[in-house]
Design a protein that fits this description.
Length: 268
Amino acid sequence: MEHAQAKRLVAALSTPTGAVNPWIVGARGWFLVLLTIWFCLLALFHAVPQIDIAIANTFFYEFSCLNSDLPGRICGEFPRSADALLQLGRRILFYMPVFFAVVVLIVLVRNLQHHGATYCANRTKQCWIALVTLVTGPYLLVNLILKSVSGRPRPYETDMFGGDKLFAAAGSFDGSCYNNCSFISGEAAGAGWVACLIVFVPAQFRPLVAPPLIIVTLISPALRVSFGGHYFSDALLGFLSSAVVYAGVTAYFEMTQAEKKRAHSTVL
């Protein structure tokens, strides 16, 4: 029995000579590539934390401490966080994922109201993938899990940037933050999710739509870094995390549909 199960597993993972392994194409291939890139970047930022420190330092303004009883303390601020116009832009972009989620939900509901030839099964799948990704990625994975357990203080909370907590490298999970921590950026993850909605655009128009969409969605992570609210690694990994989850959810939907097709094809 065990030998037969092993043979079936090998057959499922192998392909004939000259054929392309299904695990490295389509959504599954993108998922594996993006997940590998994500962990490689995490390893880089963890091994070379000076990258985060140097980038945060470019936005930090140091000044003399008023209390001379604290020798060695660094005082300063991230002046861009006090810019009213930039803060307004951040608040607008903060609700960008919510706006697009409502749009996707409306598209899904309207599509489900159609029947027969006017119903688009692919559009329904696209909408479900987008909504499931938003919930499982930026909301569950980032805001409820990683930001609660990562322990990484935000730049303005660390002692080298005017705070009172020790610096923690990306992925160390041993910092002094206990809630709503810096790793990874929830706003960047939300912006990354919006960037993934490029899949809704017809293929012939994507080269035209993609550049401005990417630029707009990158503004939110950039503002968080300039405000001292997140390190560069938090923003970059947060942004990319949505692409990883989006590809993973898409791969799951594709595998589920393939299983259903195989099941129906065996029915007598």
